[in-house]
Amino acid sequence: MKIAIIEDETYTAEDMKENLLSIDPKIQIVATLNSVGNAIQWFKNNDHPDLIFSDIQLGDGLSFEIFQAASVSTPVIFCTAFDEYAVKAFKANGIDYILKPFDEADIAASLKRYHELEKKFAGSSSRIETIFQLFKNKESQQKKVSVLVYYKDKILPVRVDSIAVFYLENKITHLITFEQKNYTINKPLDELEKVVGFGFFRANRQCLIQRDAVKEAAQYFARSLSVTLSVPFNEKIKINKAKVPEFLNWLSGK
Predict the structure, then answer these.
(1) How do 57-58 and 225-229 pair as beta strands?
(2) What gap in Å lies between CA 134 and CA 120, rounded to an integer?
(3) Which end of the chain, N or C, is less packed with Cβ atoms under 10 Å?
(4) How far apart are CA 51 and CA 70, in angstroms?
(5) What is the pLDDT of residues 197-209, one digit of tens each?
(6) Three-state secondary-structure class, residue 108
(7) Are the folds of 2-141 and 146-251 the same?
């Protein structure tokens, strides 16, 4: 079987390759592609593989753009850190997925599913188009979403794209806007994470941060990262080493 890997994190791509060859040494990794642009050119100039393992959000765009531009009909198994919405979309459209961080067992299960449903993958490009539109529609809707906050005796709508960070303090959820206004909100972070979408990252149990609010990230203890925001924030925001690749991939997303 010939497989192409689309992944812009070198460590993740190498891990995927090692796991695939460990599962089946007869597998041929015909390409490891790290951007939308490179992948489009490769698929236009080479025979398409039997199967593709692909990240979704690459440094220069969404991988769906590759399959559109190069007319790729090869079945795709997505490797994603995205939320339940995306998972439901994959299930509804018959394309398998692996949630990050993955291990060899996840990849083996996905390969097994591919072999069992190989015929069903015919025409997968149309299903990819459907998922692409779902993502685009969701992103468009999220730009208009507001959350309700409490200020004195009032309930106010605050646009999601004006929010720099959500955080927990004394078991109460707060948010800070880019205008440095602080409000409380009657929703847990787990629920907010599903609403606010791909522009936000769950740094840890206490913080949900927006990409535009990240001023810098620095190396911290034990290969973790310390994140500084563009708005005043008292607590140190730490990304543990297991989430660092996912965070860097999210931070570089367009």
Answers:
(1) unpaired
(2) 21
(3) C
(4) 15
(5) 778 999 999 999 9
(6) helix
(7) no
* Residues 142 and 199 sit within 8 Å (Cβ to Cβ): yes
Residue ranges for the chain with pLDDT beneath 50: 85, 89, 92-94, 123, 143-144, 254
- Which pLDDT score, from 0 to 100, does residue 92 have? 43
Fold category of 146-251 in CATH: OB fold (Dihydrolipoamide Acetyltransferase, E2P) (2.40.50)
- Please tell me the class of the 2-141 domain: alpha beta
Displacement of CA 81 from its chain's centroid (Å): 4
| Whole-number Å distance between alpha carbons of 133 and 111 | 26
E strands in the chain: 2-6, 28-33, 51-55, 57-58, 61-62, 76-80, 97-99, 146-151, 154-159, 163-169, 172-177, 182-184, 200-202, 207-210, 214-219, 225-229, 237-239
Beta bridge partners of 201: 209
Note whether 189 and 173 are within 8 A (CB).
yes
The whole-number pLDDT of residue 179 equals: 95
Q: Are 192 and 179 in contact (CB under 8 A)?
A: no
Residue 154 CB-density burial (10 A; 0-12 exposed, 13-18 middle, 19+ buried): exposed
Token representation of residue 115? 């072999």
